[in-house]
Amino acid sequence: MKLAKTFNRLAQTTAKFTGNPLCFCLVAALVLIWALTGPLFDFSEGWQLVINTGTTIITFLMVFLIQNTQNRDTEAMQIKLDELIFVSRMANNELLDLEELEEAELDRLRQRYEDMAKQAKAQRARKLAGKRSGES
């Protein structure tokens, strides 16, 4: 449990830092320094290996940190949406565990809400047409 807590803290801190313009500038400066040192090292394989290895390792590690942060954000958003559904009188409480449904059931519900949206658009269009004909 302590490891998970530490990892979550690390992931959040890293995500905040790497999403910061300062971090981008630091990394861009590092790449520029690397590029400028190319002639010094005769653009050797070792010189190229430095950037290739560094970016590969950082990318590999960042995938896990980003996924952790995204999972936490998604879970938090899901809980907030569940609360909004729960407290709304007109809400369909069936939707509280939507993420647990099978794909076919999700498709059925999606189609139901798309149909409701089409009906609402058609109703709005009829109202607008009624207002326009009343203005003439």
Which descriptors apply to this entry?
136 residues; mainly alpha; 2 domains; 4 helices; 80% helix; membrane; transmembrane; coiled coil
Explain the overall architecture:
The chain is mainly alpha-helical and about 140 residues long. The protein folds into two domains: about 1-100, no CATH class; about 100-135. Helix content is about 80%, strand content about 0%. It contains four helices and no strands. The protein is elongated. The termini are far apart. The mean pLDDT is about 90.
Radius of gyration: 26 Å
Coarse shape: elongated
**Strand pairing plus helix content: what structural class?**
mainly alpha
Separation of the first and last Cα atoms:
70 Å
Give the uncertain stretches in residue-range form. none
Domain tally: 2
Beta-strand content estimate = under 5%
Rounded mean pLDDT score: 90
Sheet bearing the most strands, described? Answer: none
Total number of helices: 4
Q: How many runs of DSSP E, i.e. beta strands?
A: 0
Helical residue percent band: over 70%
| Order of secondary-structure elements | HHHH
Short description:
This protein has four helices and no strands. It has 136 residues and is mostly helical.
What does the secondary structure layout of this molecule look like, with pairings?
Layout: H1 2-18, H2 21-36, H3 45-87, H4 103-135
Helix pairs in contact: 1-3
